[in-house]
Amino acid sequence: MMPFTVNLIGPSPWGFRISGGRDFKKAITVSKVNAGSKAETACLQPGDIIMEINGLNTGEMLNVEAQNKIKSCTTQLQLLVER
C-alpha cells in the first residue's frame, strides 16, 4: 500500500505509543492508540509503520530518538505512515 500523511494538530499529547527502532531491528510502529485521542481522530491505527516524523526518515532512528522527536512536537505533528 502507498504511504500516506497523517497530520495531528496540537497541542500535544497526541495519544499514541510506538514500538520498534534501530535498537530493536524493527520499523518504528504504532503500538497503541488511545480512545478519543488526537491520534484516533486522525485515524492512526496500531500496526501502522511510521516512516517519517515531520519529514525526518525514521529508518535509522533509535526508539528513544523517535519518542523524543514526537514529544518535541507540541503544536503540529506530521507522520508519513504505511499501513
Helix content: 10-25%
Which ranges are low-confidence, i.e. pLDDT below 50, for 5 or more consecutive residues? none
Indicate the radius of gyration in whole angstroms.
Answer: 11 Å
Average pLDDT reading: 96
CATH-scheme architecture: Roll
The figure for the number of domains is 1
- Classified by CATH, the class is Mainly Beta
What oligomeric state do these chains adopt? single chain
Q: What does the model show?
A:
Pfam families: PDZ (PF00595). By secondary structure, the protein is of the alpha+beta class. It has one domain (4-82): PDZ domain (Pdz3 Domain). It contains two helices and six strands; from the N terminus they run βββαββαβ. It has helices at 38-41, 63-72, and strands at residues 4-9, 16-21, 26-33, 49-53, 56-57, 76-82. Strands 1-6-4-5 form a four-stranded antiparallel beta sheet, with helices on one face. The radius of gyration is 11 Å and the shape is globular. The termini are close together.
Furnish the topology, listing elements before pairings.
Elements (H helix, E strand, L loop, with lengths): L3 E6 L6 E6 L4 E8 L4 H4 L7 E5 L2 E2 L5 H10 L3 E7 L1
Antiparallel strand pairs: 1-6, 2-3, 4-5, 4-6
Short note summarizing the structure:
InterPro entries: PDZ, PDZ-LIM_domain, PDZ_sf. This protein is α+β, with helices and mostly antiparallel strands. It has 2 helices and 6 strands, in the order E-E-E-H-E-E-H-E.
